Amino acid sequence: MIKNKILLDWIKEIKELCQPDEVVIWEGTQKQYDETADEQVQSGKAIRLNPKLRPNSLLYRSHPSDVARVEKRTFISTKNIETAGPTNHWISSDELKPIMLDLYRGSMKGRIMYVIPFSMGPIGLDMSRIGVEITDSAYVALNMQIMTRTGQKVLDLINQGEPFIKCLHSVGYPLEPGMEDPKWPCAPMEKKYISHFPEEEMIWSYGSGYGGNALLGKKCLALRIASSMAQKQGWLAEHMLILKLTDPNQKVSYITGAFPSACGKTNLAMINPSLDGWKAETVGDDIAWMHIKEDGRLYAINPEAGFFGVAPGTSLKTNPNAIETVSKNTIFTNVALTDDGDVWWNDLTKEAPDHLIDWHGNDWYKGDPSKPDHPNSRFTSPLTNCPTLAENYEQPVPISAILFGGRRPSTIPLIHQSFDFEHGIFLGSIMGSEITAATIDDNIGKVRRDPFAMLPFIGYNIKDYIQHWQSMLTRTKENLLPKIFYINWFRKDEHGYLWPGFGENIRVLKWVLERTENKQNYISTPIGLMPDLGKFDLSNLDVSLDAMQELFKVDQSTWIDEVTSIENYYQALYQDSIPRVLVNQLNALKDRLNLQKTTV
Ligand code: GTP
Ligand code: SPV
Ligand code: MN
Fold first, then answer.
1. What is the pLDDT of residues 105-143, one digit of tens each?
2. Which numbered ligand comes closest to the C-alpha of 310?
3. Are 590 and 596 in contact, with CB atoms under 8 Å apart?
4. CA distance 64 to 360
5. How many whole angstroms separate alpha carbon 189 and alpha carbon 73?
6. Is 220 an annotated catalytic residue?
7. Relative to the CA of 261, which ligand 2 atom is closest?
8. How many CA atoms within 13 Å lie on the side-chain side of 325?
9. What's the pTM value of the predicted model, to 2 decimals?
10. Which residues contact 597 (CB under 8 A, 6 or more apart)?
């Protein structure tokens, strides 16, 4: 029962505004999940997969226009544009609210309105935050059940007066009497709004039913709103995986990694190490909330309760732990359907089946040039399905190293380490990556700068974000802060990727952990510290020496071009107020490359 007056008033207000047929309070029980899933199958919105092959699992096919996050329609709405800064689309809240209220008016006609109380982070932990999502999408309710902690226990906290973040979502497809409901209702692009009001700690999302646009606990709350809260409250909300590593001497370490969307976080979080004696366990695969504790160290928790992972590329060979994770209790979106009622996506098996139903619902035959799955097709599975989930996954863990990385076909070596924390901030600020299908964009494959893998997720001014990272230094001793590294699994030659990746990435992690113990395993280069190849574990590795040399090549003329590109990027983004720390670091890099300094 809801006793909290703020929540009761808000439900009443939204009910009057959106005019749903019915209101359902999400209790988070298995019974409610099963009944909702059954109703979705009966109404033709979802397909129940063969329970013998894939127990308790569903397949959804989205509208072809609604397949990923929509960055162009994602807004930070504040009183003043300066609060949002140069990386965000800003609309003043005074202008945006009436537009969206008009859209919301009657938008849930003919639909059920679900009220979903949820906790990001373990229920009741001081680092956790509570939200309530009101949505007219059963798909969202089912996904939120997996991705967050929901139900009565969260409601109990709200009833006790815990504050909560109001998250309003509508697919934007009201049903007038006699209208047929499409399988995946959504609104056209120009009516989609994924809006954030950090000053009020509120989210309004309209018109999309997909992933981060609609599961509002994830990118909207746990990254955009949380990053803005974190800046004010002195912590960090980051687009990072969290991995627990146990070395052959049983020493346990934790690392985080920030790579842009579809650049390898889930895969590294579930790594199956190729080196003997190493154990890797999963804590989180997408988001880390990090606090400096009294002992001066940085601790991380995973605020999520599930994985919303990229399907294509996932196989027994690349990620056996993900394959086991999705073996049951999973919602698949936009993958292909097999003749025996199971799922398939590119690279799941070496050979595609002879016949599939593709993600549009059409026949697909082996050899057809089109892909049967969407490149951003995804699985939603509970963390507890993961065979490598760390037993302490609900406790804050101390972080020894932070990896930055992305898809860079050239220039960036397999691994390098920053000289110090401020140089690490510089590395985060210049991160670049090829744009992937995780966002709707006409420039997929082009390299764009994606600072800290947070370009679409920093909920405030990036200048203040850089400053906030720098403030970590004054709040603790530098030697207690994690060491910062930059990885690139994706360097290519004319034949493709030079590095085998996946389980072999443990070799890089081994070097990283040795660095956190100050082992003399490195050489110094103008761009940072790199492995002394004689001290990098290449045992039983099938990579040619030529490829290894290419993977570690720091080419002077390429780096001169890179410096020019960084300089142009800084100027375009920050204009005449490039953060001092970045100017200093850029100048230091130029010095090391024997180039003229910038005089900004
Ligand atoms: P989001 O959920 O969008 O934030 O993505 P993510 O960073 O978790 O990416 P994910 O691990 O799902 O990887 C995306 C794609 O990159 C998949 O197709 C993977 O197979 C591929 N990938 C991941 N790690 C590696 C690697 O080490 N080498 C290569 N070549 N590909 C990789
Ligand atoms: C990402 O795009 O970084 C994701 C998927 O993790 S979504 O939740 O849809 O944003
Ligand atoms: Mn992500």
1. 999 999 999 999 999 999 999 999 999 999 999 999 999
2. 1
3. yes
4. 7
5. 8
6. no
7. 3
8. 33
9. 0.98
10. 587, 590, 591
